[in-house]
Amino acid sequence: MDNENLYEKPANKKSTIINIAIVVIIFIGLFIYMINVDGIDNIVNLLKNADFKWVVGGVFCIVFFWLCEGITLHLPLKKLYPDQRFGESFKVSMIGQLFNNLTPFCSGGQPMQAYELSKTGKRVSDSFSMLAIKFIIYQMALVLFTFVVVIFQFDFFMSLMNNFLWVALLSFGVNIFAIIIVILAGINKKIISSIANPIIKFLGKIKIVKDTQSTIEKFDNSLSNFNNQFKFMKAQKALVVKMFLISIVQCLSYYMITYMVYRAFGNSGLAVWQIIPAQAFLLLVMTFIPTPGAGIGAEGGFLLIFNSIFKEGTINMSILFWRLYTFYAPIIVGAIFLAFSNKKFKKVKLD
């Protein structure tokens, strides 16, 4: 057996419990805030009068988003491991959704996905490489899609984001920079090594990194493997284009959730193409909020951006439903997949 398949589970139980507690506190805090601002009567009235065809539309959007996520993970894995089944890829994808939302900066998703894939004999380095390539393609689709929609709705976007334009420009810049760095790692690993190695050595001197030389060697091995996988993907142009197009559709399905929520509570007057640019901007900003699922910052950002275009008294309920779709639902569904995965794995190990 490859030593990499002995990869240990990355999740730390204590930190996971803390993050879950933060998620619960955010939910309770949001609910208490709604009661204080809107009152029980208004909340009940909004729920009674909600247009549930739009509520169901939101459910379809998030499920379709998950399916696209599973497909873009499955395609490169299937190319590398012909026996890979979509059900397995989708399960791993949903577990990634769970830990992305439970950890700051979505940092826990990829390690958990690599761990889950290692259970079925996948090399950890291959898994991380495929996940990194998937990240590049998705981020490119996200930035390009956002840019195109903003251009087509530029006047409306500027009027809505006038006070936050510098944040929008910074978000675009950082995301483009991240894409460039990961592409550089795939094209020329020497450049990345020349940047990373001094940083690792510095972290070793200030005792953040324990074994400097071992860390450098592990990083270099991972970089070499990613470089090889990147070359492999470069030769699979049709596959990359397919993943990119699916990622575009995935972005659209995510952005449309906000429009579904907008319509569910009696709002009208704006087209879906006017809602999407602001939601796209909010998603870019959320990647820099250092709480599980960008908690508090996401709700606050939604309030600041959309408060002026939602009817009075509907914004807080809209925030709750938006977060139910995009934050709490992935946690619940991902946890179900994780529970069944652990149960199945334990059974196999006992056999």
Account of the 3D structure:
This protein is mainly α and 351 residues long. It has one domain (12-160, 247-350). 80% of the residues lie in helices and 0% in strands. The protein has 14 helices and no strands. It has helices at 13-38, 40-49, 52-80, 86-102, 109-118, 124-152, 154-161, 165-187, 189-205, 212-234, 237-264, 272-286, 297-306, 315-350. The two termini are 18 Å apart.
Keywords:
mainly alpha, 14 helices, 351 residues
Structural class: mainly alpha
Number of strands: 0
**Element order: H for helix, E for strand:** HHHHHHHHHHHHHH
Shape: globular
Oligomer: single chain
What proportion of the residues is helical, as a percent range? Answer: over 70%
Number of domains: 1
Distance between the termini: 18 Å
Compile the SSE list and pairings.
Elements: H1 13-38, H2 40-49, H3 52-80, H4 86-102, H5 109-118, H6 124-152, H7 154-161, H8 165-187, H9 189-205, H10 212-234, H11 237-264, H12 272-286, H13 297-306, H14 315-350
Helix pairs in contact: 1-2, 3-4, 3-6, 3-11, 4-5, 4-14, 5-6, 6-8, 6-10, 6-11, 6-12, 8-9, 9-10, 11-12, 11-14, 12-13, 13-14
